[in-house]
Amino acid sequence: MVRVIGELMFSLKMVGIIFGCWISILHLSYGQEDTVEFNRDVRPILSDRCFLCHGPDRASEEGQATDLRLDDRASAIEFDVFDFENPSKSELIARVTTADPDTKMPPPDSQKHSLSSAEVKILRAWIGAGANYEKHWSYQTPQRPELPEVADQADVFNAIDAFVVARVMRENRKPSAVAERSSLIRRVTFDLTGLPPSFAEIEAFENDKSPLRIAYGKVVDRLLSSEHYGEQMARFWLDSARYADTSGYQYDRERKQWVWRDWVINAFNTNMPFDQFTVEQIAGDLLPEATDQTRLATGFNRNHPITIEGGVVDEEYRTEYVIDRVVTASTVWLGQTFTCARCHDHKYDPISQEDFYRFYAFFNNVPERGLNGFAPNRVIASPLKAGHDQLELRIAKLEGKLAELKTPINQWESDVRKQVAKWEILPPVNVISSGGATPKIMEDQSVLMVGENPIKDDYEFVFETKQSVQAIRLEAMVDPSLVNGSASRGFNGNYVLSEFIVEAKLGDGDLYEPVKIASASADYEQKRYTVDLTIDGRVDATGWAVDGNVRPDNRLAIYSLETPIPRGTTVRIKMLHRYGGSHQIGRFRVSASTIAPTVGPLEDLLAIDLANRSAEQTNRLRELLVMRLGSKEMRQIVNELQTVRAELKKALVVPATMVMQEMPQPRPVYVLERGEYDKPIKERPVTPGVPSTIGTLGVDGPQNRLGLAQWLVSSKQPLTARVSVNRFWQRLFGVGIVKTSEDFGAQGEYPSHPDLLDWLAVEFMESGWDVKAILKTMVSSRTYMQSSRITEASFQWDPENRFLTRGPRVRLDAEEIRDNSLAVSGLLDHKIGGASVYPYHPQGLWMEVNNRPGYSRAYPHQTQAEQLLRRTLYTFWKRTVPPPSMSTFDAPSREYCVVRRSSTNTPLQALVMLHDPQFVEAARFLGKRMLDSGRPTIESKIAFGFKCCTSRDPAEAELKVLVETYYQRLEQYQADLSAADQTLGVGGIKLTVVKDRAELAALTQVARLLMNLSEFLTKG
Asked: Which residues, in sequence order, are CB contacts of 102 under 8 Å at separation 6+?
C-alpha cells in the first residue's frame, strides 16, 4: 500500500505537466534526423493550419475563396508560394510569420493557432530541400522493412524489440528491465482474457523453474486457448460494431441481437482468420457457399439504432442507417473519417463527395424500412454450445441404446398405415387467378404463380373427384423464384390465406353449393394467424400465416369435410387472399383423401412417402411407433429421449437476428446535396466503388458488398492490416502506434514507429491474418514485458510512453473492473454466450431518463445468481440509459462506432467502487474467501486476499496497515453487531451461516480497501 500511495501522489503531481508543449516536443523528437520528411513533419502542420481553406474541398465556402491548394504541389508552385533559392523569402513563410492581421495565416479569426518557431523552421527546411510532396503514408502499400541493428541483443526477444530499442537508442535512452513475474501474469491475463489471474495461476507461474521466457510462453499459450479470450476480444469488437440490446432513439425498445454477439465470441475463440472474419461480417450473405452462420455474421451491419417513432419520414431514417454503415465500415477497417464527405469533399483527405456515395452504394440495397426497419431477420442458431455438449452426448447414447433393441418397425408401420389417410395429388388442370397471375404447372403437379402480382388475389381450383373425398390437403411450397426463397409472393416472404372455401355441384344441379368443412389443422401457425381463421366465414385481413419472412419452409393445411363428396363430382376450391401487400401463396399443391386423417405427429410422418422421408423423420417415426406399440423398456428410453431433447431444444431457442440481404434490383444512388436524403442530384449518379486514392475493386471481382469485403482484406489495400494491428497494439499498450486509431488520414497522428507498424501489418497478412499469432508476437516481446515503473524524469520526458521505454500501465476498462471484482470474490459466473442479463441497477433510473408512456418499461431487477454474476460483456445495454457504473468508467453508449475509448479520473468513480452494491457484495464474498482460505493467522488471510487482488505479495508496511485496519473494524463490529449485519446484508446473494459475523464484517472492510487500491483498478 505504501508503494501504491506513493505512485498515486506522483501521478497527481505529474498531471500538472502541460501536454501541449509535449506534443511539439514529441513531433520534433520523431523528426530528429537531418532530413525533413513531408508525411512525418510537414503534412501535419499544413493539415492542421492550412487545409481548411487550401485543402481538397473546393465546394466549401472557405475553399471557394481561393484557388490555392496546399495539398497539391503543382497548385502551390503555380501560386508561387515557394522560393527555393531563399526559403525565408517564400510567400508561405512570409504569411505564417507576419504580424499583419490582414495577411497573416492562419487568419486570426480562424480559431487556428499561429505556427510556432519550430514549425516555421520545419517549413523553411522543407522548402529549402525542394518542397517535395509524398502520397499520404497510410495510402502507401506497406512493405516489410529490414530489422534495425541493435547493439545489445539481450534487449531483443523478437522483431518488435529491434524497432523499439533502435528508436530508444537514438534518444540516448535505455528500455526498462523486464517486469516481475507477478506483474507479467497479471498484465497478460487481463489483456488476453479480461480477467485477473487466479491465486493458483499466479503461484504456478512464480514457482515454475523454467527460464522466464519459456514459463511465460506457456502462460500465453494457455490464455490464448481459454474460452475467455474470445469474450475479451469480442468486448472491443462490440464497441466498434455499436452493439446494444435496444434500438435507440426516443422509444429505445428492446431488440435481441445477442446471437450475433455469440458469433463474434466463437469467431475469436476458434481463431477465425481476420480476412474471413471481415468478409463474413460485411457480406456473408453474398458468399457463393453462404450458410446460416455466414448470414448471421452480417448482423454486424444491422447493429445501428432503428426508430419506431410515429411521424418520422421513412426514407430519411433509412438513409441514416445506410450512412451509419458507411461510417462504421470505413472507421473499423480503413481508419478513415468518411463522414466528413457526406455533405462536401473532405477538407483534409482526398475523399470526394462522390467517393462517399460510391461507398454508400454498397450498403444501400437492403430491403429495409426507416420506420420499424427490423427486417430482414432470420432465426439462426448460436454457434456457441455452452452446456449443450452433455445433453447431446446423452441423446446419442439413448438413441444408440434404442437402436440396439429389436423393434419390428416395418410391421408396426404397416399395421398403423392402414388407418392413415392416403393422399392423391389433384392435377391442376383448371386454375384461375382473379388478379391476373399466370399459373405455371410444375413437374410435381404443383402450381407456381408468375406474372402479375396484385395487392390482393384469389385463386380458383376446379377438379372432378375420382373417388369419394373426406379431406383436402393444401401444401404451400417454397420456390427459389419467390421472395426470399419462400412460399409467398409477399414483399417479405410471408402469406396470409384469408379463407379456404370448398364448393361442389351436388346431385343433378349445375350450380356450386358450399361444402361444410368440419375442421382445419396445419403443421405450423403464426401467432394470431391460425388456420381455423380460414374457415370462419369472414373474408377479411385475418387468416393463416406462417412467419414466412423468418421461417421460409414448406407448410401444409388439412381440411376435413363434415360429409364426404361422392365420386364423380365437380369440385371448386377457392383460396382467398385479402390481407394485402401481395401476401398470397406463390406455389401450392392440392391433394384429396378418402379418409379424414387423425391429426398428430405419427399420422403426419406416415403421410410422407418413404422415399421422401429424412433420417430425422425416420427416427422420429420409430420413436412414435415405440410409444404406441413398444415394450415398457422401449417406452422408458423414448420418454427419457424426449425429456433430454426438450431440454436441449429449450437451450437452443434463439430469437430472430437482423441480418443483411441484397435486393434483386439495386437501388439507384445519387450524390445527395449537402447530404440531405430528399435532395438527390440526378445529374450526379454513382455506382459502387472505393476512393481511388486508396485503391480500386478491379474489374474481375463482384461490384457489390462481397467485392468490397474482399478488397478490404486484399494485400494491395494499404489500410486494413495497419489499422487492425494498430488497434491490437492500442489494447495492449493503452495507446496505438498511431495514437488516433480512428483516423489514419491527414488529421491523424503520424506513427510513433512507422517501420514497426508496417512490419506488423505485413506479418499479420503473411501469417494468414492470424489474430492469435500477432497478439502472441506482441505480448512475447520484451517491449511488452518491461516493467511499468516510472520515475518523475521519465514521465516528464515521455508522459504517454510513446517511445515505449517502459511497460504499459493503464486503468482497467469498465467491464474489466467489475469482472475483476466478481472474479477475486469467487462469485463470477463463467458461462459463455447467451442472452443479455440484468445485474444490479439503480431503482427507477430507466423510467426517470427514458419514460415514453406505452413504450418504456422499468428495469427488470433480478435476484437470480445467473443474472447478477455473469461477465459484464453480457449486461443488458440500453442505449439511452447505459449501465451507469459502466458509463462512469468511460464505457461508450454504443449509439455509434467507437474504436478508442476515453479515459477519465473523476470522484464518481471512487463513489461507485465504494458504494455500488455489486462491489460491496463482491467485497464481502472476498472477505469470506479470506476467512475460509485455511490460512492460520489473520496476517496470512489478508495476505491471501491482497495477492488475489494485486497478484503479488504485500510489503511488510502494506500488510501492517491492512492488519491494523482489520482490528479497528473488528473492535467496532464486536461492539455493534447490527452494523456488522448491515454490512453483510448488502446484495442479493446470500452467504452461508457465519459463526463470527464481526470477523467477517471486518474482513469485508479490508476487502473493500483492497478493491479500491490503484493496483486493483490498474493493469501493469
From this structure: none
Place of cell 487500491: 1013
pLDDT at 709: 97
Q: For residue 33, what pLDDT is reported?
A: 52
Residue with cell 427486417: 375
Cα distance between the two ends of the chain: 16
Give just the sign of the alpha carbon dihedral 944, 948, 949, 951.
positive
C-beta separation of 590 from 461 below 8 A: yes
* 569-601 core/surface letters (b: 16 or more CB in 10 A; e: else): bbbbbbbbbbbebbbbbbbbbbbbbbebbeeee
- The answer to whether the predicted template modeling score (pTM) of the entire model surpasses 0.90 is no
How far is the CA of 655 from the CAs of 111, 247, 378, 551, in angstroms?
Answer: 51, 15, 8, 12
> Cα–Cα distance between 709 and 604 in angstroms, integer?
45
What is each CA distance from 69 to 56, 77, 275, 740, 983, in whole angstroms? 7, 10, 38, 25, 68
Q: Measured at the alpha carbon of residue 508, what is the angle toward residues 507 and 514, in degrees to the nearest 5?
A: 50
Q: How far apart are CA 902 and CA 813, in angstroms?
A: 10
Q: What pLDDT, on the 0 to 100 scale, is given for residue 854?
A: 80
The pLDDT, as a whole number, for residue 387 is 57
Query: Mind listing the pLDDT tens digit for each residue in 58-90?
Result: 655 655 667 899 988 999 999 999 999 999 999
Q: How many angstroms separate the CA atoms of 292 and 378, rounded?
A: 9
Dihedrals φ, ψ of 591, to 5°? -130, 160
Cell numbers placing 960: 501492517
Q: Are the C-beta atoms of 826 and 929 separated by less than 8 Å?
A: yes
Residue owning grid cell 453508449: 893
Helix residue spans in 42-158 (DSSP H) = 43-49, 51-54, 61-64, 73-78, 91-97, 117-128
Contact between 272 and 215 (Cβ < 8 Å): no
Is the distance from CB of 577 to CB of 495 less than 8 angstroms? Answer: yes
Give the Å distances, CA to CA, from 728 to 133, 242, 820, 1017: 31, 18, 21, 21
CA 350, CA 272: separation in Å to the nearest integer? 33
Residues composing the chain = 1020
How many helices (H) does the chain have, and how many strands (E)? 39, 20
Task: Decide: 924 and 987 in contact? Cβ < 8 Å.
Answer: yes
What is the rounded CA–CA span in Å between residue 215 and residue 222?
11
Pairing of strands 430-433, 513-514: unpaired
CA Rg, the chain, in Å? Answer: 35
943, 911, 942, 910: which is closest to 927 by C-alpha?
Answer: 942
- In angstroms, rounded to a whole number, what is the distance separating the alpha carbons of residues 88 and 101? 20
Under DSSP, the state recorded for 196 is P
The grid cell for 798 is: 515521455
Annotate 405-419 with b (16+ C-beta within 10 A) or e (fewer). eebeeeebbeebeee
SS3 948: helix
- Name, in order, each residue with C-beta under 8 angstroms of 1015's C-beta and a sequence gap of 6 or more: 4, 949, 950
Cα 931 from Cα 913, distance rounded (Å): 22
Cα separations in angstroms, 573 against 474, 513, 814:
10, 11, 64
Element containing residue 605 per DSSP (H, E): helix 601-606
Instruction: Give the model's pLDDT for residue 390.
Output: 72
3-state helix, strand, coil in the chain (%, to 5): 45, 10, 45
Q: In 3D, which of 11, 179, 6 has the Cα closest to residue 810? A: 11
Do the beta carbons of residue 656 and residue 377 sit within 8 Å?
yes
Q: Which residue has the cell 404397416?
A: 414
Has residue 774 got a pLDDT over 90? yes
CA–CA separation, 947 and 15 (whole Å): 29
